[in-house]
Amino acid sequence: MRFRVILTSCFRADRRSGRNIRGPHSALTDFLASNNISAAQIRDEYDRRVADATRQAAEEEEAATLDREEAEYEPTPDPESPEDKSKKRKRQQAIEKIKKSKEFARRKARRTGEPDDDDDALANTMISEKQRPNPGQLDNCEICGKRFTVTAYSKTGPSGGLLCADCSKKHVDGGKKGPVKKRSSGIGRRKNQSNLLDGMASHGTQSLLETCIKKVADNIDDVEEFGDLPPPVMHRLSQILSRKRAVTSKTLDLFLRPSHREINIYDCARLDTDDYHKILASMPRLTRLNLRFVTPMKDRVFQYMIDRDMNIQDLHLDSPNLVTDDCWRQVFTELGPRLQSLKLWNIDSAFDDETMQIMCKSCTGLRRLKLKYLWKIGDKALESIATLKNLEHLSLHFSQETNPEPLLQVITEVAPKLRSLSLEEFRLADDRLLQHIHEHCHHLSKLRITKNDLFTDKELAALFRGWSNPALRFVDFNNLRDVDMSNPAGPPEPVGLASDGFIALMEHSGSKIETLNIASCRHISHAAYEEVFSEHKRYPELKYLDIAFQGVVDDYLAQCIFRCCPALTRLVVFGCFKIRDLRVPKGVAVIGTMGAKLKVDGITQKEIV
Amino acid sequence: MADSTSEYVTLVSCDGFEFILPRSTACISGTIRRMLDPASKFSEALTGRCVLETLTGVVLEKVCEYFFYNEKHKDQANVPDMDIPPELCLELLMAADYLDT
């Protein structure tokens, strides 16, 4: 029966090599012919290669099958017989071929720890695996000898042959289970990269606390009560669960503590309106309500808050889109005076300039205000904000385009007490804004001005030179650059944060700066970098540095950065293509290299390419 | 038995289990480190023996296991998290919070 299999495959080979179907001449054939390329020749060569390959396969199969037959019927073959020699040679050739194959190398790599002379054994196993019939063909069962159709699920018997369905089952039930796949120590590459992006260049174990928090989050469905967990741990748990999108009505109950004054849930998408009532009802002492993705939050939730006269001081809500303007106004009039911080994100259907006006009139005690992506507010809202004299932290990212003047008014009025200022994407703001900041802000520790192409380098440098404000802790100037596709080098008078501004910034704030983001400020020169990160300069506090899309940064500058920033934990270098080969100090996560060689402690790291 | 200079310290659980481990290993916990700080003159520092009233033997055993796990993998990159039985993780979480590890 085995011979029949061989014959069919030989026959198939002949038929394939004999295939010679001629189609009509195509335009492509004509084109190729005109370029002296013959389609017929290409096809003939292809046919010949296919035929060769099939014939070779058939020969190998034949040799192998004969070998096997022999093993069965002649346990001790005469080593001198000439016929045997040729078979042996063929088998030897097959083994050599397998040894060169990729699959062999892969398997060999997997069996580390075993002596090298195992190669032959491995090659032999692979050869016998190759000779197994393909799914759909027939074979005799190794144990019961019954004839059966081979499927992809057919099991391998104890001596390498295949087993029929019945024997397969018995073999698995009765026999040992296959060798347990050895898990390599350490966590996978994917996880490493994910950690890197989270900024964790881990050395040593994580803290027991963090490990436990993660474990609890993994098993959150089995947890009945948290017990007496301290608020910081609850906060961390909430973060992890939110990230896993695992906050449901059931999990929410774990966080409801009548004695606690704050609740932080970063993903409320799976809660419904009643759950918000539950939060308010079961935590009457609540002063801080921090909920994100609160799509189902409606007017009556606020109504309840007003009826109970709750002492909410910090209200942080992301996307409460079903709350009407009337309701917002009522909330601010009733509860506004006690509000200390207000953060709102993503409101498109309500919250207009008039609401904003009422808010600013009532919430006089407001010290922290963050408004991001509120679609309906614009210039008028800025004028209202200028009346909030107690503000210490102001963060604005409007969706509407606003004029520069109202913004200047805001700075003039509220600046004296400001400790952090974040103005994102005010595209029309110009140098006057920088001058106002220079003049009026004296207590800033955090400054973010992003996405603008009107500020000049000269004024940015002037902002930092002779500024009475102490050194900043946090600076984010990403995307302050000129955008002109036809002139990538920028105008002769540099626009955005360029060399001079960067030098002035680091001279002013270098001693205290912890976070610096200058992504896409692409007019900073190599020389400016060399000066800022020259040998004797030190930035002892700098932990996070984002210099993405700064083409001038090369390996040399990156090493200079490492030298000058001993506390660095994260360096973001997306689009810095000149970084090719880097020795990364311990504990620094380098994010965004492309095909670069990173060495930590002399060990080359794998990276996403 | 031990004093402030001894190389080993003893951790005692509330139900009386005693774990003797190297001082450096135990000091991975901030709380224990402060207890054993010779400058503190706490009785723990003088005797080298910490009685942890809030921890049961089972939890303390796991904590000690973590100390050694931490010590062993101190200089390695990409260390997998230690395996913690789910039924123990809340208690261990409290312990970790208390011990500042």
TrEMBL record, chain A:
Pfam family, one: zf_Tbcl_Rhp7
Biased composition (Basic residues): 178-192
Stretch list, region Disordered: 51-121, 172-192
Listed InterPro entries: Leu-rich_rpt_Cys-con_subtyp, LRR_dom_sf, Znf_Tbcl_Rhp7
The organism of origin for this protein: Penicillium cinerascens
Any GO BP annotation: SCF-dependent proteasomal ubiquitin-dependent protein catabolic process
Biased composition (Acidic residues): 59-81
DNA repair protein rhp7 treble clef domain residues: 135-170
Compositionally skewed regions (Basic and acidic residues) per UniProt: 93-114
GO-annotated cellular components: SCF ubiquitin ligase complex
Protein name: DNA repair protein rhp7 treble clef domain-containing protein
TrEMBL record, chain B:
Family matches, as CDD domains: BTB_POZ_EloC
Domain SKP1 component POZ: 8-70
Subcellular location: Nucleus
The entry's keywords: Nucleus
InterPro entries: ELC1 (IPR039948), SKP1-like (IPR001232), SKP1/BTB/POZ_sf (IPR011333), Skp1_comp_POZ (IPR016073)
This protein's GO CC annotations: nucleus
SMART domains linked: Skp1
Record bears the keyword Nucleus: yes
Subunit-level organization: Component of the SCF (SKP1-CUL1-F-box protein) E3 ubiquitin ligase complexes.
Family, per entry: Belongs to the SKP1 family.
Name of the molecule in the record: E3 ubiquitin ligase complex SCF subunit sconC
